[in-house]
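Input structure tokens:
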């Protein structure tokens, strides 16, 4: 590979939930480093198409595919579309996620629980079943799961989300042990609050502030996490610099848990 060849040239990334927020930043970052990117989204087609245009205008390769990662048939169709587009996927970032409604267990419907856990954890198990055989044949494979620092808190009124992310982490750590012999690295990135649509909604609901960015000054590092902060950690994990790293969980919370005031 020449000195000017981008490091991820020749690699194919599938990023779930990549139309907006953290997933969008991850897809953009991987594409800028030379990966061909499958931009998955659920509803916001305009946002997904604008990202594909941005990547291709910059000389990169990208396609977008609508599919809910919580629905088995749509997961299968997503895998088919990704494999049709680029032949294989050697880098999967499972980022798609939804918040739960904020109800106690006693008032949470089974339907909500099933929907949230399916989006965070069950669908990606199915997706892996479709992608792993091809991934094993590549020089290197990477799976990065976007979890949440909330998993360490298990706060009340968040059982579907907490359960979804805990199951996702269990899947990742099990998979890391199974696939290491095939050269597939599996890691978890667990952000704290991030300034995205989801972060804004959480802050509005819990604190009555307009946006996550309104909390910048109160954070240990002087600002709330931005999507690019998470994307750069994902970029590191899939790079040669992290070629000896697998089965790890990196918390990206700007020191919230490390701060003297907690
Ligand atoms: N923001 C935070 O404070 C925070 C903190 C810790 C962890 N996280 C985690 O980080 C991930 C990304 O969050 P975000 O803040 O970027 O969220 P966001 O701004 O709400 O964006 C969510 C993205 O996921 C997609 N999506 C939602 N449901 C989907 C489904 N069933 N199938 C496929 N795609 C789906 C959305 O697609 P459409 O545009 O089509 O709807 C969108 O692209 C999530 O897993 C979240 O749990 C977020």
């Amino acid at each position: 590979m020449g000195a000017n060849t981008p490091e991820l040239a020749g690699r194919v990334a599938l990023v779930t939930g990549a139309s907006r927020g953290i997933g969008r930043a991850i897809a953009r970052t991987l594409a800028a480093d030379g990966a061909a990117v499958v931009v998955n989204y659920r509803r916001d087609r305009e946002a997904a198409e604008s990202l594909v245009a941005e990547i291709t205008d910059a000389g990169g390769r990208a396609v977008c595919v609508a599919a809910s990662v919580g629905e088995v048939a749509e997961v299968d169709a997503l895998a088919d579309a990704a494999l049709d587009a680029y032949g294989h996927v050697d880098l999967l970032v499972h980022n798609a996620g939804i918040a739960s409604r904020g109800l106690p267990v006693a008032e949470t419907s089974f339907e909500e629980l099933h929907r949230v856990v399916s989006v965070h954890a069950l669908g990606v198990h199915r997706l892996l079943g479709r992608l792993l055989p091809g991934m094993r044949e590549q020089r290197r494979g990477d799976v990065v799961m976007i979890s949440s620092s909330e998993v360490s808190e298990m706060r009340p009124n968040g059982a579907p989300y907490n359960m979804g992310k805990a199951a996702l982490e269990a899947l990742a750590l099990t998979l890391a042990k199974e696939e290491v012999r095939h050269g597939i690295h599996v890691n978890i990135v667990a952000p704290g609050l991030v300034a995205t649509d989801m972060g804004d909604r959480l802050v509005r609901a819990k604190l009555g502030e307009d946006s996550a960015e309104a909390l910048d000054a109160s954070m240990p590092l002087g600002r709330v996490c931005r999507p690019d902060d998470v994307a750069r950690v994902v970029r590191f994990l899939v790079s040669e610099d992290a070629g000896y790293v697998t089965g790890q969980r990196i918390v990206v919370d700007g020191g919230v848990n490390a701060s003297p005031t907690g």
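DSSP finds seven helices and seven strands in the chain. The pocket of NAP is lined by residues 16-23, 40-44, 47, 68-70, 95-98, 119, 146, 148, 191, 193-194, 196-199, 202 (CB under 6 Å).
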